[in-house]
């Protein structure tokens, strides 16, 4: 329980501290030459935040695969095990990225402004129009040169195995004309979800960055087929 309280304190406290630096960072960002460089600069603070969370929870992260860090925008598609997925992925992936988050996160103190700077997108699962707007916002973000990460399962699996993928999010990649980078993450559910979020335990997490699926895949395959292809690659990686 103490580890959980300490980690939550770090999440909120570090976000509050970082917010005091936000205006300066925004001013500095505007002087940088490209979207990729600007996003990389802003993400430095997010990576420090993620590292402190993982250290406080005594979590180690193993990253395998090819971490591409060029300026070509991509859509990351990852399975979704637990609450620690975001800090682990921010720590593990070199490319800066925004992510699709449930609308409830907007109410967490200090985080909303940082979510905006990281080019995150909110989704209200109870509102169908919100899903359509999420797709539009995701396409626009990618076309502007930002990277985006989605969890097509929609909900945390909590270590109960890979769930079915919702193909709707793949419309983002198809409409934006970007490559898809599948990501397999394992071990985060064992840190908290197995104990119903009442306590945390130290652990080891593995992140596998898989070979990109080129944007041209949509020339010959439907959204459902691409979704099945990406899911199969992630499933194979999780079983290896």
From TrEMBL:
Pfam families: Acyltransferase. Transmembrane segments: none annotated. SUPFAM superfamilies: Glycerol-3-phosphate (1)-acyltransferase (SSF69593). GO terms for molecular function: 1-acylglycerol-3-phosphate O-acyltransferase activity. It comes from the Bacteria. It catalyses: a 1-acyl-sn-glycero-3-phosphate + an acyl-CoA = a 1,2-diacyl-sn-glycero-3-phosphate + CoA. Its EC number is 2.3.1.51. GO terms for cellular component: membrane. Pathway: Lipid metabolism. Keywords: Acyltransferase, Lipid biosynthesis, Lipid metabolism, Phospholipid biosynthesis, Phospholipid metabolism, Transferase. SMART domains: PlsC (SM00563). Residues 74-188 form the Phospholipid/glycerol acyltransferase domain. The keyword Glycosyltransferase does not apply. GO terms for biological process: phosphatidic acid biosynthetic process. CDD domains: LPLAT_AGPAT-like (cd07989). It is an enzyme of class 2 (transferase). Belongs to the 1-acyl-sn-glycerol-3-phosphate acyltransferase family. The HXXXXD motif is essential for acyltransferase activity and may constitute the binding site for the phosphate moiety of the glycerol-3-phosphate. This is 1-acyl-sn-glycerol-3-phosphate acyltransferase. It comes from Macrococcus bovicus.
């Amino acid at each position: 329980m103490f580890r959980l309280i300490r980690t939550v304190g770090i999440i909120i406290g570090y976000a509050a501290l970082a917010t005091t630096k936000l205006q300066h960072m925004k001013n500095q960002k505007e002087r940088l030459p490209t979207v990729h460089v600007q996003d990389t600069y802003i993400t430095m603070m997010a990576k420090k935040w993620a590292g402190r969370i993982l250290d406080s929870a005594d979590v180690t992260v193993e990253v395998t695969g090819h971490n591409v860090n060029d300026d070509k925008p991509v859509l990351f598609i990852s399975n979704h095990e637990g609450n620690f997925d975001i800090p682990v992925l921010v720590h593990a992936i070199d490319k800066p990225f925004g992510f699709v988050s449930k609308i409830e996160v907007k109410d967490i103190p200090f985080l909303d402004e940082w979510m905006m700077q990281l080019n995150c997108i909110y989704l209200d699962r109870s509102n169908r129009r919100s899903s359509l707007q999420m797709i539009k916002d995701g396409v626009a973000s990618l076309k502007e040169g930002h990277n985006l990460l989605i969890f097509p399962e929609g909900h945390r699996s909590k270590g109960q195995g890979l769930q079915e993928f919702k193909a709707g999010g793949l419309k983002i990649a198809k409409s934006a004309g970007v490559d898809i980078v599948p990501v397999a993450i394992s071990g985060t559910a064992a840190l908290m979800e197995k104990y119903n979020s009442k306590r945390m335990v130290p652990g080891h997490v593995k992140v596998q960055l898989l070979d990109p699926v080129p944007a041209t895949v949509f020339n010959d395959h439907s959204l459902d087929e691409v979704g099945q292809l990406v899911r199969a690659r992630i499933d194979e990686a999780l079983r290896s």
